[in-house]
Amino acid sequence: MNKYQTSDKTRRALIGAAGELAAEEGFSTITTRKIAERSGENIGSIHYHFGSKEKLFEVTLLAACRSWITHPLAEILVDCNLQSKKGQAEAIIRAITRVTNLLFDRDIPGWHCRVVFQVMQTDNNLRDLFSATVMDEELEQIGKLLNAIDPTLSEELRLQHFLLLFIPLYFHADYRSAILQRLGKEEYSEEYLETLRDSCIRQALMRYHLPVE
């Protein structure tokens, strides 16, 4: 294994360890020693590869958000005509389907969702980073859709409606372990996720009096 491959492997191990620990207990209590022990690397490698523990945390959060960043909502909705009921319905279907796919992608480590959940609990630079890289854009795009559906909605109510669209999906992702334990399963089945997605879509379309196929 060459030097570059070894270095990349070390970085991935440190990011994975920081992500797993953050998912379990949040970033605030994580020490460099815990990260080193979990990753199997030495403490010095954290500073060598990232400069500081705080920078590692930022890179870890961005890793958890990578799929959202590389699949921006604006691209998903670009050809939806938001001035028509049919286009609005299509936009809602695409937006909810996208969130479902991103949250429950089996190729993505489970700690990704939990890291974001933990970050959202604390007012600090990591939450600011998440807002700047993901949430602000999500809110802007859904805000345009909601404004097209109902121009009378205040900014406060647009946020409320944004949450109503996706909360069942976020809940199933954030509390995955407890829900799966209750279901007696290790993973959500495809049928379960499809039903969850379709239920969110149908409720949204009915709420806004949009065509339901």
What coarse outline follows from CA principal-axis ratios? elongated
* CATH architecture type of the largest domain: Orthogonal Bundle
Number of strands: 0
Oligomeric form:
single chain
- Output the helix-strand order: HHHHHHHHHHH
CATH class wording of the largest domain: Mainly Alpha
User: Would you tell me the structural class of the helices and strands?
Assistant: mainly alpha
What does the radius of gyration come to? 19 Å
Count of DSSP-assigned helices: 11
Number of domains: 2
Average of per-residue pLDDT values: 94
Helix content: over 70%
Task: Summarize the biggest pleated sheet.
Answer: none
**CATH third-tier fold name of the largest domain:** Tetracycline Repressor, domain 2
- Beta content comes to under 5%
Keywords:
single chain, 213 residues, Arc Repressor Mutant, subunit A, Tetracycline Repressor, domain 2, 2 domains, 11 helices
Written account of the structure:
This protein is mainly alpha-helical. It folds into two domains: 3-62, Arc Repressor Mutant, subunit A (Orthogonal Bundle); 71-207, Orthogonal Bundle (Tetracycline Repressor, domain 2), CATH 1.10.357. The chain has helices spanning 3-25, 32-39, 43-50, 53-70, 73-77, 85-103, 111-119, 125-149, 155-174, 176-183, 190-207. Helix 1 (3-25) crosses helix 2 (32-39). The longest helix is centred in the middle third of the chain and has 25 residues, at 125-149.
